[in-house]
Amino acid sequence: MSKNIGLVWLKDDFRLNKNLALLEATKNHDLVVAFFLYKKKKFENQEAQRWWISKSLGEFKNKLNTFNINLEIIDTDNYKSFFEKIFYKKNFSIYWNRTYEPEYLKFDEFLSNKFKINKIRFNIFKGNILNEYDEIKKKDGAPFKVFTPFWRTAEKFYFDKIPKKNKKLSKCVKKISFFKNTINEKEIYPKKKWFKKFEEYWIPSEDNALNQLKIFINDKIENYSEARNFPNVIGTSKLSPFIKHGQLHVETIWEECIKIKKKGVNKFLAEIGWREFNHSLINHFPHMLKGNYSKKFDKFPWRKNIKFLSAWKRGLTGYPIVDAGMRELYLTGWMHNRVRMIVGSFLVKHLLINWLEGEKHFRNCLLDFNEANNVSGWQWVAGCGADAAPYFRIFNPILQGEKFDKEGEYVKKWVPELKNVPKKFVHKPWDLNDSNILKLGSDYPMPIVSHEKARAAALSAFKSI
Ligand SMILES: Cc1cc2nc3c(=O)[nH]c(=O)nc-3n(C[C@H](O)[C@H](O)[C@H](O)COP(=O)(O)OP(=O)(O)OC[C@H]3O[C@@H](n4cnc5c(N)ncnc54)[C@H](O)[C@@H]3O)c2cc1C
Q1: What is the pLDDT of residue 163?
Q2: Cβ–ligand 1 contact at 350 (below 6 Å)
Q3: Element (DSSP H or E) covering residue 193
Q4: pLDDT given at position 160
Q5: Beta 70-75 vs 182-183: how paired, if at all?
Q6: pTM here?
Q7: Where do the structural domains in the chain lie, given as residue ranges?
Q8: Which residues of the chain have pLDDT under 50?
Q9: Which of 100, 213, 240, 256 for a ligand 1 pocket mutation test, highest count of atoms within 8 Å of Cβ?
Q10: Which fold has domain 128-165+205-284?
Q11: Closest atom of ligand 1 relative to the 358 alpha carbon
Q12: Angle (nearest 5°) at CA 79 between 77 and 80
């Protein structure tokens, strides 16, 4: 055992299972302190996640306490200056897991050099991913740009090196403090009280994530391939916020899934595969974090229309399935994948608003926001990503609604103004013509654009590039 203190830098790693940095620190040190750096500026545009993180920190702090490990939270807008202040202490070794975003990986390099120079022992571990992002390459060494061959290779690569036994965390000798000027997790809460609603839908904890995975595998995975398309049923796992914040490691998902021989497993694991693919993309092509993956879209004639953007954000476009999705997002911090595609397509193709606006709004409202999936998801929808939907495939929000929310249950749940509208009209209330049931324009808006005209305008804009 080292006499030094073991420090563990926690980022998106609020779990005991498969937390390699934490495991290694408790194996090597009698005294361990975990810490979380709260970058206020970054979270100014990630409001919803402040709620999840605050809750997770509170819960994980209690969990680590039972292992005699303090979890300290430090408010700092500058990682570099934070670490520069601790280099001189020398009485510690430090451990953390990788976060697969170019900015973090670059910072890992910077820190590694600094720790080497200062002769401080450090260890960086694999984070929440199946394969390290640069392990999966084409035969010629180039990164994959298409999902199917990527996943075929990645799946096999992972299968061939399936992990060793899960290790258990050891209890430390006693609890100690390390940092000065720490803050309480409650200081991270968003200012607006709108997040209070989230409490009705989510309990951010590792135990809850594991339980939810178990229920999904027992009751839902069998029908996943079909049910995942229908937003009115709970046909997907709803694990995304837990995965994002590391309460659930994707290796755990893999291990639990391959134990069973049920229909739906392969499809479900392929979705985890999309997450792997997106992480590979943003690290190999980091320009896509700030703009179009496909450069030809740099000339796309986007329109600036604050009124339309605001109607979209508030769920007041007059297209029920779009409005239902946007309101689900605002109220619960999550939106069904099919509906993410529909609302995204509507913003980009019906309103001709740059996908970056949508990306920004999702970043602020999604509890599961992560750079890789959000930026890639938006560029998939917009047609400017790698392996994206072609731009000329324009979702018709009426037909999408009629196909995937036949009875209008999803729409009525989130857009209660439409609750008395017969199902025949629920996705096109403008055809109803019965002001006793719905006064269009006052109870619920008229469509802000006509589908046919918007479609034609989108196709002509696309032709121009
Ligand atoms: C415009 C747009 C933006 C998106 N932004 C995000 C985001 O910020 N964060 C995020 O996690 N996902 C994002 N997605 C992907 C997807 O919508 C969510 O991962 C999914 O809806 C989460 O619900 P679930 O956990 O029930 O998924 P399930 O269907 O149960 O899938 C299990 C897990 O697989 C991964 N996954 C599923 N679908 C996808 C996908 N299409 N792409 C990548 N990974 C996937 C997620 O980690 C998910 O939790 C976005 C999709 C679109 C179209």
Answers
A1: 65
A2: no
A3: none
A4: 78
A5: antiparallel
A6: 0.97
A7: 5-126, 128-165+205-284, 295-463
A8: none
A9: 240
A10: 1.25.40
A11: 1
A12: 120
**Architecture of domain 295-463 in this structure:** Orthogonal Bundle (1.10)
Ligand 1 close to Cβ of residue 245 (< 6 A)? no
Q: Is ligand 1 within 6 A of the CB of residue 278?
A: yes
Asked whether 70 lines ligand 1 (CB < 6 A), one says no
Query: Distance from the CA of 269 to the center of ligand 1, in angstroms?
Result: 12
Distance CA 204, CA 89 (A): 34
Nearest CA among 280, 283, 233 for reference residue 405: 233
Whose Cα sits closest to atom 24 in ligand 1?
238
Q: Which residue's CA is the nearest one to ligand 1's atom 9?
A: 369
pLDDT digits (tens, 9 = 90+) for 250-298: 999 999 999 998 999 999 999 999 999 999 999 999 999 999 999 999 9
pLDDT of residue 2: 75
The encoded tokens of residue 40 equal 């206020």
What residues contact residue 130 under an 8 Å CB cut-off, 6+ apart? 154, 158, 250, 251, 254, 272, 276
What's the CA gap between 82 and 35, in Å, rounded? 12
Mutate to test the pocket of ligand 1, among 341, 343, 373, 381 (most ligand atoms within 8 A of CB): 373
Class (C level, CATH) for 5-126: alpha beta
From the list 296, 279, 300, the residue with the least C-alpha distance to 376 is 279
Classify residue 30 by its DSSP letter: S
Residue type, 169: L
pLDDT at residue number 409: 98
For residue 104, CA distances in Å to 12, 107, 275 come to 12, 5, 18
- What is the 3 state secondary structure string of 263-321? CCHHHHHHHHHHHHHHHHHHHHCHHHHCCCCCHHHHHCCCCCCHHHHHHHHHCCCCCHH
76 CA → ligand 1 middle, Å: 30
